[in-house]
Amino acid sequence: MTDVLAPVTGRLVPLSAVPDQVFAGQMVGSGVAIEPADGADGADVVVVSPIAGTVLKLHPHAAIVLGAGAGILVHVGIDTVNLQGEGFTLLAAEKATVAAGDPLISFSPALIRERGLSAICPVVLMDSKPDTIAAPAERDVVAGDVIFSV
């Protein structure tokens, strides 16, 4: 059993709350989402690795970490690929070995929202069947809190 940690501080919500049919419909996999809190005094927010493992893919707007037989996708915002990296900083590298809680990406939720996009962050167990991860009770979480187990 692997605990999956919150990659950002914010409001934990069901994946169905994501304003994107691919994520809300669990087409990528089952999971949860976090509406990130803004950084203190406008500072960027750091996305941390949800599990220990290897960074399989790393983009300004998304990361996949593979560990203990599970691939976890953290997608930073919706349609944020269109920002072409603006407002994002990579803090890790592909193929790097990371511990749960290690920094992966920093970003500005405020900038994403200013561009008219959603800053919500889906956290998905890749290639899992719908409803593999139970919808969570909505609550506030801090980066590093356990949000589900696989």
UniProtKB/TrEMBL annotation:
It holds the Pfam family PTS_EIIA_1. InterPro entries: Dup_hybrid_motif, PTS_EIIA_1_perm, PTS_EIIA_component. One of its GO terms (molecular function) is kinase activity. The keyword NADP does not apply. NCBIfam families: PTBA. It comes from Tsukamurella strandjordii. Residues 20-127 form the PTS EIIA type-1 domain. GO terms for cellular component: cytoplasm. GO terms for biological process: phosphoenolpyruvate-dependent sugar phosphotransferase system. The keyword Cytoplasm does not apply. It comes from the Bacteria. Gene3D superfamilies: Glucose Permease (Domain IIA). Keywords: Kinase, Phosphotransferase system, Sugar transport, Transferase, Transport. This is PTS glucose transporter subunit IIA. It is found in: Cytoplasm.
